[in-house]
Amino acid sequence: xxxxxxxxxxxxxxxxxxxxxxxxxxxxxxxxxxxxxxxxxxxxxxxxxxxxxxxxxxxxxxxxxxxxxxxxxxxxxxxxxxxxxxxxxxxxxxxxxxxxxxxxxxxxxxxxxxxxxxxxxxxxxxxxxxxxxxxxxxxxxxxxxxxxxxxxxxxxxxxxxxxxxxxxxxxxxxxxxxxxxxxxxxxxxxxxxxxxxxxxxxxxxxxxxxxxxxxxxxxxxxxxxxxxxxxxxxxxxxxxxxxxxxxxxxxxxxxxxxxxxxxxxxxxxxxxxxxxxxxxxxxxxxxxxxxxxxxxxxxxxxxxxxxxxxxxxxxxxxxxxxx
Length: 323
Ligand code: ADP
Ligand code: MG
Prior knowledge:
- Helix content is about 35%, strand content about 25%.
- With about 325 residues, the protein is an alpha+beta fold.
- It folds into 2 domains: about 1-190, Heat Shock Protein 90, CATH 3.30.565; about 215-320, Ribosomal Protein S5, domain 2.
- The strands form 3 sheets. Strands 1, 2, 3, 4, 5, 6, 7, 8 and 9 form a 9-stranded mixed beta sheet that branches. A 5-stranded mixed beta sheet has the order 10-11-14-12-13.
- α1 crosses α5.
- The chain starts with a helix and ends in a 5-residue tail after the last helix.
């Protein structure tokens, strides 16, 4: 069983940043309003995610580490209406099979918290422990028992940068949640959690830059796009600060990305890419989130329509006229 989890882990968790993503998604699914991410040695030493969400009852805390023991899909038709972020019940089992995990959790109303330790897939019996409401998940020594995989990790600096990018994306995806991102040395950023994406941008990239952003908005029957885009002068030398979200999920979609760049056209210098945070809302049946094991690439069933809408929203924002 541990073996199967380790194989699954190859798809779900490739590096500290993938742990960060899975743990944040679990906190969001548990309706956290505050999520703190702490990285030690770029996450190679440990990744800790602390939330103030619903917490788990003792039995569920142990079950959480069993494969396909998700509390979120009960029958096949549930898959068609996934609203939560996690749904395969694989992440924690996979992570715990290749790391040392400490879970501290206290459900709302529970008299005390409990601690569950899992090392290389071996689950220890829960122990009572003092704790605030919510959940703390600490993942230490990732790949300690799979040296072949450990070898593929890059420097602490590189791994940290990847994890921080994940927290930045999730912060922008969920402006209503207050995120704290820190290392063993310092707080890297902190978002206010007031529901305003521009405030999140300010927390990540500075107030001055956030103020210059242009609003973009358009809708067309089945789709709505809203958010903001940078002025051509704010463009960067990489695509890293172009953020796209579909139904609250950070995604990558090359066609939409190209549509956005097309809208900028001649306004961009060669080798420069626009900054933006665009939020697409559409009927979930038009989105297939299950293309990629890490749920990052999405397939849109009416991609061309979506691209046209996004392109016109960006063009209108650049032209200073709202649609
Ligand atoms: P999935 O998210 O696909 O259901 P996971 O392996 O990520 O699977 O998590 C397993 C289960 O553990 C979740 O379904 C949830 O019930 C519970 N869980 C995990 N993290 C948290 C958390 N931060 N707060 C509350 N419950 C959690
Ligand atoms: Mg999950």
